[in-house]
## 1
Amino acid sequence: MTRYAIGDIQGCAGELEALLERLHFAPGRDELWLVGDLVNRGPRSLEVLRLVRSLGASAITVLGNHDLHLLARAFGAREHPSAGDTLDQVLTAPDRDSLLEWLLAQPLAHYDAARADLLVHAGLVPQWSATQALALAREVQSLLRGDPGTLFAHMYGDGPEIWSDALEGPERWRFTVNVLTRLRVCTPEGRVALKMKGPPPRGMRSAYRPWFELPRASRDVRVIFGHWSALGYVNAHGVIGLDTGCVWGGALTAFDLDRSRAPITLPCRGYQQPDKD
């Protein structure tokens, strides 16, 4: 069996199909680890959902911010599409309900204890151990599956900026979602700056650093993540970063989680302008 981790797909079904063919991926023998953001911005989100769902237990995916945005729109928490949304094909599909039910059941974090591999969409603040991150993910997942309307009504927003064990209710849920699905940079104290995009900040002028470069309580696990297209491929600091900007005209990248070899990349044509990321 080979475990392949694949970066943000974002509705690029043709590229995903071509990459799986290049990998000679065989359901039942091999396993996919998908970093989330299966949908949006690309042209064929519906086909991506159908394909990944059809793989059953051979595909493990976590929810990204665009996946949650799709669910929020489906539950009426977002009446109007955001700029760049390409979700209408999913929302009007005849199998919409079964696909959304499947997506709703996906986790925010997945952990393979035997290999000490943790899969999330974006990252972890330095103060969270893998155990704490998984517990917080389960809290949100429980609400997502039991009372999604309440979660989506409070999900959007950039605050709080820093973690506290005293956080409760909507602020606790929102911070958890923001870190697991939107984080790029933070301070050593765990203060997040969710609006900071583009390449990683360098030099003394910024107190913020890529989350994985800071001393972190989750150092005992390898974290596989995506979300940061301007960062690109990373294999350092105990993490594997796999968002290589497929939807922006970069590449879709697969990484063999069990063997030491170069990542496999498939150049992509690009469907959006990078300044919208």
Note: Helices lie at 13-23, 45-54, 65-74, 88-91, 96-104, 130-146, 148-155, 169-182.
## 2
Amino acid sequence: MREIAPGLWHWTARHDRIPIDVSSYYLEADRVVIDPMVPEQGLEWFEEHGRPEHLLMTNRHHDRHAWKLRDALGATVHCVRNGLHEIEGRGPVEPFDFGDELPGGAIAYEVGAICPDEGALYLPAHRALACADGVINEGDGLDFVPEEFMDEPQQTKDALRAAYRKLLALDFDILLLAHGDPVVGGAKEALRKFAGG
């Protein structure tokens, strides 16, 4: 667990269905987990830092350990409405739409392109933007998710760039990525360079 900004925690954990480590984030004061995974320290970590009350997904694929956390801690799972079909039958979920304000003051923005429910969560209180799968950071700077996850790679990349350019109107300096390390400081400029804006 690493506190990357006051009250904003990042950790990685091995995904159950894909053999890679993925990132999760905790907004401690708001009791909100983004793209939930159980940390290596276990659920006990939350007993010391406040039990999560809300579990937000940046897209439908990121339910990850949401149901474990829900069952253990009683937190509410939130998923964008047009992605609910993917998680049907897994457990109770609170749907939201793009444009909605969510727990923790997060505002849901549509990214699309790679899948209809691909989104970003803007966290004004933290000057942070949480992105789903369209952009990753595996240590060499921002990049696209591998082309094998795109139906039409060039069109998808162009559409992702266009969507991220629109998000540059927001005030953020931290980029929370579901895959790879977050960008802490200079995040808006990094996304601008990546998106060609």
Note: Residues 2-195 form a domain with the Metallo-beta-lactamase; Chain A fold (CATH 3.60.15.10).
